[in-house]
Specification:
Helix content: 40-55%
Structural class: alpha/beta
Strand content: 5-15%
CATH superfamily: NAD(P)-binding Rossmann-like Domain
CATH topology: Rossmann fold
Mean pLDDT: 96
Largest sheet: 7 strands, parallel
Low-confidence stretches: none
Bound molecules: nicotinamide-adenine-dinucleotide
Number of domains: 1
Radius of gyration: 17 Å
Number of strands: 7
Length: 247
C-alpha cells in the first residue's frame, strides 16, 4: 500500500498493532504518542519513525503533523487510537476527571483531525479513522463520562465525514474490543470475584469466542483495510470490530 500514514497512540495496544499492520502492507508510518520510550521501540521494530506528541496540547499536535508531513513528503491518512479509560460512579464524577477524559478522548481527536486536514486535502484520497467504543453505542454503567467522551468522537466523526467529503476525505469511527494494556489494567483492578464475573460476562456477551480480540489479528487488519483504497466508498460509518459484543 503506497500510503503515508500517521498513527496517533502508536506506542501501545491497538495503535501499536496498526503501526505493524500498516507497515507490513507497505505503508510509510509516523507513529505519535505521549509515551516516548515505548513509542520509539514499537516504531523502530516495525521499521517506522516516531514523534512524541501529547494530544492535549494544540500547538504540539500541529507542530508534530507538520514534522510528520515534512519527513514523509505528505500525509494520506490518519489513524487516531489514543485514548484513556475512566471508570467510576456517575454520581461521584468530579470536574477534574470529566475534563481529563474529555480533553484526551474528545478534544484530542479534534486537534489531530484539524491538524491533518490541510495534508489530506492535498492527498488524492485522504482518510481519517477515529476510535470510539461500544460504550458510545450502548449503556456503560460505571463509565458514563468515558461513554460521553466516546459519544462525542462518534458524533464528530460522522459530521466531518460530510463536511470534508468534498475534499475526497473519508472519516470513519471504529468501536473495538481488544486485549490491550488498557483493558488488562482495568481487569487487574478487580477483586478475584470481580475477575470471574468479568470473564463470565465476556463469555456470554461475545458470540465470537467469548473473549476480547487480539489487536494484531482481529483489529489492525480492519484498520489497514479502512486506510486502503479498497474502502474508498466507506465513510461516516460506525465500524464495530468486537466479535459481536453487544449485538
Ligand atoms: N481495548 C479495548 O477493548 C477498547 C475498547 C473500547 C475502546 N477502545 C479505544 O481504543 C483506543 C485504543 O485503546 P487501547 O486498548 O489500544 O489502549 P492503550 O492504553 O493500550 O493505548 C492507548 C495509547 O494512547 C496513548 N495516549 C494516552 N493519552 C495520550 C495523550 N495525551 N497524547 C498522546 N497519546 C496518548 C497511550 O500512551 C497509549 O499508547 C482508545 O481510544 C480506547 O478508548 C479500546
Amino acid at each position: 500500500m503506497d500510503k503515508k500514514v500517521v498513527v496517533v497512540g502508536g506506542a501501545s495496544g491497538v495503535g501499536a498493532a496498526c503501526v505493524r499492520s500498516l507497515a507490513d502492507a507497505g505503508a510509510t508510518v509516523v507513529s505519535m504518542d505521549v509515551s516516548e520510550e515505548l513509542g520509539q521501540e514499537t516504531a523502530r521494530a516495525a521499521g517506522q519513525s516516531f514523534l512524541r506528541c501529547d494530544i492535549t496540547d494544540r500547538e504540539q499536535v500541529f507542530a508534530a503533523f507538520e514534522e510528520a508531513a515534512a519527513s514523509m513528503g505528505g500525509i494520506d491518512a490518519l489513524v487516531h487510537t489514543a485514548g484513556i479509560l475512566l471508570q467510576g460512579p456517575a454520581a461521584e464524577l468530579d470536574d477534574q476527571s470529566w475534563e481529563r477524559v474529555m480533553e484526551i478522548n474528545a478534544r484530542g481527536p479534534v486537534y489531530t483531525n484539524q491538524a491533518v486536514l490541510p495534508f489530506l486535502k492535498k492527498s488524492e484520497r485522504g482518510s481519517i479513522t477515529n476510535f470510539a467504543s461500544s460504550a458510545a453505542l450502548t449503556a456503560y454503567p460505571n463509565g458514563a463520562a468515558y461513554a460521553a467522551s466516546k459519544g462525542a468522537v462518534t458524533a464528530w466523526t460522522r459530521s466531518i465525514a460530510v463536511e470534508w467529503a468534498p475534499f475526497d476525505i473519508r472519516a470513519n469511527v471504529v468501536h473495538p474490543s481488544a486485549a490491550t494494556p488498557m483493558l488488562e489494567a482495568h481487569r487487574d483492578k478487580l477483586s478475584e470475584e470481580g475477575k470471574i464475573a468479568y470473564d463470565e460476562l465476556l463469555k456470554q456477551k461475545v458470540p465470537l469466542g467469548g473473549r476480547f480480540g487480539d489487536p494484531d489479528r482481529d483489529i489492525a487488519p480492519v484498520i489497514t483495510f479502512l486506510v486502503s483504497d479498497g474502502a474508498r466508498f466507506v465513510t461516516g460509518q460506525n465500524i464495530a470490530v468486537n466479535g459481536g459484543y453487544y449485538i
